[in-house]
Each structure stands twice: as structure tokens, then as C-alpha cells.
Amino acid sequence: MASKDEKNLAAVLKKIDSMAEPERSLVQRTHEVIMDAAPELKPRIWYGMPAYALSASTPALITLRNDERVNLAFTEKVELVPAGGNDGMLMPAAWFFDSIDEATEKRIAEIIRRAIS
């Protein structure tokens, strides 16, 4: 019998597989970057899209949405920090992208590590 974590991962992979190209490849690679950056995260479906939490029974910290654009976002469960500088009290919480390269992968990994630290 599959564990809850295995079932949740299967659901996330099924959701990604159901997406049309080119978003499917983009979301699949982003999922891989997230899991490489923080293998302790548990993928699951959250409001119909892939998401990542610290356990199967805790709220999602990060969502990976594919609406009109691919969106990596923090949920309200992440400790958000004001950006400072020109952005003052605004708190970075979402990033939109339509392609992924090595620099973007590195930045996504940094974002993920910050979310769980």
C-alpha cells in the first residue's frame, strides 16, 4: 500500500503530466529544482495545483501554479520579510516566469531554501 507521501507525489506528477506544452516541461523542471533544493519538502496538490509542505499534514508553503503564466509563490505560512530598499515594506511572495535557464534554476533554489529556513 502506498504511503500518503507517495500518493501525494503521484498526484502532483499526474497534474504536471496533464499540462500542455511548453508549460508542462517548464513546471516539470521547476518541480525537479524544488525537490533538489529541498528534498525534505513533501509535494501535494493544493487548490488544484502542485504545492510543497514540510509534511503531509501541514499547510503548503510554496505553490507552483500554471494559470495564464507559470507562477512560483509563497503561501501565508512562509515567514515573509520586507524587501527594504526601493521596495520598502513590500514582501516578495510570487515570481512569474515563462522559461527556465541555469540562472533561473539557481534563483528558484534560493527562493525555496529561504522559504523553509
Structure notes:
By secondary structure, this protein is of the alpha+beta class. The protein has one domain: Aspartate Aminotransferase, domain 1 (Alpha-Beta Complex). The chain contains 3 helices and 5 strands. The protein has helices at 4-17, 23-37, 102-116; strands spanning 42-46, 49-53, 62-66, 70-74, 94-97. A hairpin with an 8-residue loop joins strand 2 and strand 3 (62-66). The longest helix has 15 residues, at 23-37. The radius of gyration is 14 Å and the shape is globular. It starts with a helix and ends with a helix. It holds the Pfam family DUF1801.
Brief account:
With 117 residues, this protein is of the alpha+beta class. Helices cover 38% and strands 21% of the residues. The chain has one domain: Aspartate Aminotransferase, domain 1.
Category from helices, strands and their pairing: alpha+beta
User: How large is the radius of gyration?
Assistant: 14 Å
How many angstroms separate the termini?
A: 33 Å
CATH topology descriptor: Aspartate Aminotransferase, domain 1
Protein name: YdhG-like domain-containing protein
Domain YdhG-like: 24-116
InterPro entries: YdhG-like
Organism: Corynebacterium ammoniagenes DSM 20306
